[in-house]
Model the fold of this input.
Amino acid sequence: MTQIASQFSRADVERVVRDVLTGKLNSRDQPRQPNPLVVNISARHVHLTDEHVEVLFGQGATLTPERELYQAGFFAAKETVAVVGPRRRMLPNVRVLGPCRDDSQVELAFTDGISLGIDLPVRISGDHHDTPGCVLVGPAGVVELNSGVIRAMRHVHMGPADLEYYGVSNGDKMHLRVNAAGCTTVLEELVVRASETVKLEIHIDTDEGNAVDLDNATSVELSKPCGCGCTD
Amino acid sequence: MTQIASQFSRADVERVVRDVLTGKLNSRDQPRQPNPLVVNISARHVHLTDEHVEVLFGQGATLTPERELYQAGFFAAKETVAVVGPRRRMLPNVRVLGPCRDDSQVELAFTDGISLGIDLPVRISGDHHDTPGCVLVGPAGVVELNSGVIRAMRHVHMGPADLEYYGVSNGDKMHLRVNAAGCTTVLEELVVRASETVKLEIHIDTDEGNAVDLDNATSVELSKPCGCGCTD
Done:
C-alpha cells in the first residue's frame, strides 16, 4: 500500500509556474527535491529482542526474512505472534519485523486497541514511558510485556539532503496533505526522524491510511507548517 | 463517542482577546455561536425501506427503536442484519437505523470495505450512482442490493442559525481541525447539509474517528476554508 507523489501535483505545477515567472528555471538557487516522496502504511506489527524471539519460537531461534521493507536492511519476518489484551481478546497473527531490537515493542492502530481493550498512547518508536503492556504468544512460549504497546506517532524518515530541502530538523513536526476524492485531509504533527542513511519515507498507520483513502489519493504534499495561523 | 468543543479552545480565547482589543465585547455586531458544536462518530449501519424490513424480519415487521439518536426522531433500531460482500465474508451484526427510507443504504468505513472486499465510493447519503451492492441477511429473509453501499462523506448538519454564524450554504465544504495529543488532523471536504429543523452535528466515520483520536481530543474547530492557499 504505497502512494508515490504524482509528478504533476498542483504544488508541482505551481512551483514550475512560479519558477518560470521569476526566471529561476534551471537556476542553481532553486533546489530540486532530492528524493521521491513515498508514503507507506504501517500495518500492526511487533519488534522483538533476541531473547524474546527464543522464548516465543524456541531455543536458538532467529527471525527469518520473508520480505524486504523500503528501508535497506529491514524486513518483515516469516514469524508472527498472537497479541493478547486485558479483555482476553487477541489478534492472532501479528507480523514480526526485523532485525531484532534492544526492547520489544508492539505497534497497533486505535482500531486494534479498541478491539483488544488497550488504551493506546501515541508515541515515537522506542519511547515506552507510561505505556501499557500485553501478552505475546508464540508457538514455543509466552512473553508478558510490562510496557511497549503503542500507536506509533505518524512520522517521516529523512536523510541529510531531505532535511536541507524541506528546511527542517530532527524532531520537527510537518504537515502531510493527502488529496483524495471526498476526503482530503491534512495530517499534522508528522514528526521528522532524521538519520544519515535512511530513505525519505512517511509512515502512517492503517486508521490514518483508511481515513484519508491513501490507496486512491490523487496527490500528497509534505510541508513545513507555514505559521500563518489559519486553519485552512 | 461524542466530543463537545471545549469552552476554552485556542480559537475561542483568540476570539475573546480580539473582541476586547477591538472594543466589541458584548456588542450586538458580534454573533455568538448559536448552538454547541457536537462531533459524533457514525459506526457502520444500514438504512432500510419498509419493504426490505418485511423481507428481512418477516411480514408486517417494523423497526423497534432501541436508542434515540442526537437528531430528533431518528433512532438506532433493535434490529441488526448481516452484510455479506463479494468475498463471501460478512459483518454479522450491522445496526439498522430508523425511520425507514425510500432506498436502502449501507454505510461502512474503509476498514469494513477492505474486510468485505468492497471498494467503497465516498458519497453524500442518498447519492447511489455507480455504487456497489451487497447481500443483506436477516432472520426471515435475504435482500440483494444492486447499489447503495457507500462510505458516507464526512458532513456537518446545520440549521439556519448555524449557516448564518459560519457564513456557509448547503453543499459548501468546511474544515474540521481536531486537536489531539500527537495526532492533530484537519479533515477537509466536510460537506454542509442544511435543514430547517436539524441540530448542529458533525458526522465522521470510525476510521476518521480513530485516525484523529476523537475520544481523547482536547478541542475541535470548525471553520470555513480561508482560501489563503497555504497548507498549514
Observations:
- The first strand of chain A starts at residue 2 and ends at 4.
